[in-house]
Write a structure and sequence with these properties.
This protein has 268 residues and is α+β, with helices and mostly antiparallel strands. It has 2 domains: 107 residues, Roll (Ubiquitin-like (UB roll)), CATH 3.10.20.30; 154 residues, Fumarate Reductase Iron-sulfur Protein, Chain B, domain 2, CATH 1.10.1060.10. 35% of the residues lie in helices and 12% in strands. It has 11 helices and 7 strands. A hairpin with a 2-residue loop joins strand 6 and strand 7. The protein is elongated and about 75 Å long. It binds iron/sulfur cluster (2 copies) and FE2/S2 (inorganic) cluster. The site of one iron/sulfur cluster has 15 residues, from helix 4 and helix 6.
């Protein structure tokens, strides 16, 4: 008989009748799928959806670690399910749950609304004081200028770092690792003039200063973004910014539309 693997999959139906206490609880449902050493957890979930139980809900798209939509808890760790091979756990059962620290919409699907709002708050895009003319061509960068932020630009918004972050678990307003790393990424970009527009959010109580530098976010990041390092670098920039505001208040007035620290450090 062909080998099989058991998956214990979290199920939650928001339309199910509530229990006696008025709440709806999730439950685990066990499925047996063929074991294939080349299958990842996402393949097994797709097999369940296609062959065993069409009511299962889960998100995915690219199947190659690019879209960031298949993040889930796999045996307690935040993982991209398209990069988590069954053979890592076989023959032990594999427990699949939605990402922790997010509200569950249905089964393995979480609500990303809060994250999207935090992401928007850090303005994760290039902000220019003046747009160049089209005929002048692209904004050029030296290799060192690219290297200053490239690692932080690899984020695919998979949210694994939020599921791993203990602060994100108890501080609902914490801007969190990926959004802060992306804000820092643009502050480091030599083409960007948006430091002053990100400052109030990124350097606020609910942002970099809530981070306790435990580093779990960087441990789980499948793209090696290292958000913990980005946040600590941003703390240094915030400290420089604060000192400048004390000793050179006139200069700070000018930085209301022009960045100070990050531009100095970013163009190496
Ligand atoms: S380093 Fe900061 S953001 Fe990363 S897991 Fe720890 S507290 Fe969260
Ligand atoms: S920083 Fe890493 S873990 Fe966090 S969302 Fe981006 S890619 Fe995912
Ligand atoms: S399906 Fe796109 S990252 Fe996994």
């Amino acid at each position: 008989m062909a080998e099989t693997t058991k998956l214990e999959v979290f199920r939650y139906d928001p339309d199910a009748p509530p229990g006696p206490d008025g709440t709806r609880e999730g439950r685990f449902q066990t499925y047996e799928v063929p074991f294939n050493k080349d299958w990842v957890v996402l393949d097994a979930l797709n097999y369940i959806k296609d062959q065993l139980d069409g009511t299962l809900s889960h998100r995915w798209s690219c199947r190659m670690g690019v879209c960031g939509s298949c993040g889930m808890m796999v045996n307690g760790a935040a993982r991209l399910t398209c990069n988590a091979f069954l053979r890592e756990w076989h023959p032990e059962p594999i427990r699949v749950e939605p990402l922790t620290n997010f509200p569950v919409v249905r089964d393995l699907v979480v609500d990303m609304t809060g994250f999207m709002e935090k992401l928007q708050a850090v303005h994760p895009y290039l902000i220019r004081k003046e747009q160049g003319k089209l005929e002048d061509g692209e904004y050029k960068q030296l290799p060192g200028e690219l290297a200053a932020y490239k690692q932080f630009s690899m984020c695919i918004n998979c949210l694994c770092c939020y599921a791993a972050c203990p602060v994100a678990g108890f501080e609902e307003n914490f801007i969190g690792p990926a959004a802060l790393a992306l804000g820092h990424r643009y502050n480091l970009d030599s083409r960007d003039d948006g430091f002053a527009e990100r400052r109030d959010v990124m350097f606020s109580h609910d942002a970099i200063w809530q981070c306790t530098f435990i580093g779990e976010c960087s441990e789980v990041c499948p793209k090696k973004v290292d958000p913990a390092a980005a946040i600590q670098q941003a703390k240094i920039e915030a400290t420089k910014d604060w000192f400048l505001s004390k000793i050179l208040p006139r200069a700070m007035e000018r930085t209301a539309s022009a960045p100070v620290g990050p531009r100095e450090g970013g163009a190496s």
